Amino acid sequence: MSANAQAPDLTVALTRPQLTRFPLDFLLIVVDLAGMVALLLWGIHMVQTGVQRTFGAKLRVFLGKALRNRFKGFIAGLGVTTLLQSSTATGLMITGFTAGGLVDLEPALAVMLGANVGTTLIVQVLSFNIAAIAPVLILIGVIMFRRGAVGIRDFGRLLIGLGLILLTLHLIVGLLTPYDNVPSIRALLRTISAYPILVIILAMGITWAAHSSVAIVLVIMSLAASGIIPPEAAFAFVLGANLGTAINPVLESTTKNDLASKRLPIGNLANRLIGVALGFIALPYITPWMMATVSNSARAVADFHTAFNLVVALLFFPFLAPFANLLRKWLPTRIDQTDPGKPLYLDPLARENPAIALGFATREALRMIDVLEAMLMGLRKALEYANRKQIVETKRLDDILDKLNAAIKTYVISINPEQLSEQDQRRLREILGFVTEIEHSGDIVDNNLLGITAKMVKRGVVFSQSEQTELLAMIDRLIANARITASLFMTGDEQGARMLVSEKVKFRSIEISATDTHFDQLQSGHIENMETSAMYIDALRNLKSINSHLVAATAYPILERNDELLSTRLRQE
Known about the structure:
The chain is mainly α. About 75% of the residues lie in helices and about 0% in strands. The protein contains 21 helices and no strands. Helix 7 runs parallel beside helix 10, helix 13 packs across helix 14 (about 295-315) and helix 18 runs antiparallel to helix 21. The chain is elongated, with a radius of gyration of 30 Å. The termini are far apart.
């Protein structure tokens, strides 16, 4: 090569400025563009996985604490999705919090409104011409990924993903720019652009297939910046992309028999559908105003994308409560009675994403609390009314606990350990500990407490009025503690954990007081039926044991995580 020779330009090499053979050359353009879109999707995937592995557990805890009112929920959804760059991923996290009615549907819908706005912020950033920093981001990311510790490696993955996104957008613009004035291309796009409804449907289908509205909007920005598509068509594409990204969560719902599990994705799809319809009607009026306000086409697309989601959020936010009630009415809770021990939420495909898979396992684990609560209520009825049929029905619930326990453990240990961050590994251990403690609690109800009740029914003996009152009060307290346990499992609230631990002290005091009173009555000869004495003491201790399992299931891990738990209760010299 001579001294005056120049290195080939990558952008020029990737373009074909003359369409001498229209069908073949057009096909080659589509293939090039499809490859670049695939690279863009991979960059977005790397950003998402990098964020999830770095902040996954913290994001779940943050969402759990924010899901107390719709205002906090909106801000949390916006913030988390800005990091994840996937409203779908945020929605999958929220479904775990809405299981079992622990979190109201209203703040969950608010989170999704915030999540939809959050997906637009990275588009806003990338609408600026910052492609020059792409090689620097990739270089730093590779160095961190290859030489750093686990947390640094994950952050390096995030930087590599951002670099790939910027580089791909630059290549797409370089690919499309030479065809700005090609008559055949312009004629084809003018034909399509003349029918905005067709553009919306096309964009909806592409976004559904790509599973990323961010990627599609970024491509639309590149097309608009190159002058390939007119502004009104670009805005219609944005509307279709916003609609398409809301379809996947509805179609991919893991629970087909329980319509309640679809409330959140269907609610999100409904508000976007209404927003798109209104946007379509207003499109002829919005386009001239936007282009007069914003001269840069790519910037106009990004601004329209953000404005659309903000307007939808403002439109629906005041009506979230009646909207949530309407969704509950249309989509009532249904439980498959054919096999209640069959897992409902353990999606095998989700195991590729540890954060999402652990969210599904968490949601399934909450069903175990529901079953345990049903067992305690059945025990109460059997004890109060000496009902043999109730004893049999309640004992069957323990089989459901056993099946769910086995299914959840099998699911979580099948997740590739190399994909688990330190926070994910801790969450996995918490899930395993939780289901184990709940399963042990069910065994105590089944083998011990129901056994005592069945023995009493068989022999025709009953507890005294004071004994029965005391036992029923303890069972009621256990049911309340089981609900607190479920809430703590989702939120990780330290104050709630302390409250649950204090319940252990109260149970111990109740047991000691009741036992002392009982022995005093025994010694004074006031016990009419001596046969129930040992059964009563056993029942007290078994109830206290169940409460200890509930405390160990959630409160201890939370306090231990925050260094609030002593390693021993022995007095130090």
